[in-house]
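PROTEIN–LIGAND DATA SHEET

This sheet pairs a single protein chain with one bound small molecule, adenosine-5'-triphosphate, given as SMILES. Inputs appear in the order they were entered. The predicted three-dimensional arrangement of chain and ligand is reported afterwards as a token string under its own label.
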Amino acid sequence: MSEETQIQHSTTETPGSSQAVPAPPALEVKGISKAYTERRRVTSVLNNVSLKVEQQEFVSIVGPSGCGKSTLFHIIGGLEQPDAGTISMNGSLVTGQRGEISYMPQQPALFPWRTIEDNVLIAGEIKGVPQDQAREEARHWLAKVGLSGFERAYPHMLSGGMQQRAAFLRALLAPQELMLLDEPFSALDALTRSEMQRWLLELWEENRRSVLFITHNIEEALLLSNRIYVFSGRPGSVLHTVDIPFPRPRREEITDSPEFLLLKRQLSQWMREEQEKSATTKG
Ligand SMILES: Nc1ncnc2c1ncn2[C@@H]1O[C@H](COP(=O)(O)OP(=O)(O)OP(=O)(O)O)[C@@H](O)[C@H]1O
Ligand SMILES: [Mg+2]
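PREDICTION REPORTED AS:
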């Protein structure tokens, strides 16, 4: 069961020319491998991972816990060096370079000494937006994610889910075109999660950015993505590449369609198989 669905490559029109010129992908991960050595024990975490995010595409990664998804994000963001392979963005090699992406880590890393509003404002400060304008923008977005009234609170005064929403906003307002989101909604209750998904979907469809998204939630991945990469258990490698055919704009109603349910069943089965394999190797 390792048949891979074909990836469709996008092309864009260059202004003033009638020829379609393929734009380089927003992100290209090629042959990434990584192992950690601790007390002389070598753990292979990623094995020859290759994937792409075309310009303005929404791409998801699903895979068992511990298969190296967050490690891959650290490598893309230049926080870790790979043992093998390269990272390119917009056609340029950027392996090991920082500052190229907007990144929301799995643990919302808000600055504890800054208020929520000031945490979100960091994106504006980096962009060089005038203070007043940035503050107004931050308030507008905080209200959208249900954090009005908490602008002046400090991170420790917020619940885990509220911190996650603030960290998500900070990534969203950052100036980099490519956004990496590591399980941005994992700490939210089902209702808030579904609200945030709907909101992200609408926002992304209005104002497309290139997104690489990690989630354990298959329904979420199917609803949001153009393509899903299914990872194997550790060492993580790409097992399946699935193009998601639903037209845009997408609304939650598609989750009831037979096509959606079929894909959901297939992906869930792959995930279960990998989880079982991981459990037997560990046990
Ligand atoms: N800095 C590090 N030093 C040693 N081992 C590490 C380090 N970072 C990650 N690992 C190991 O690499 C493996 C993959 O971790 P990673 O956080 O990438 O998994 P993940 O797929 O994001 O899992 P989850 O879905 O639970 O978030 C784990 O076994 C982890 O212990
Ligand atoms: Mg992780």
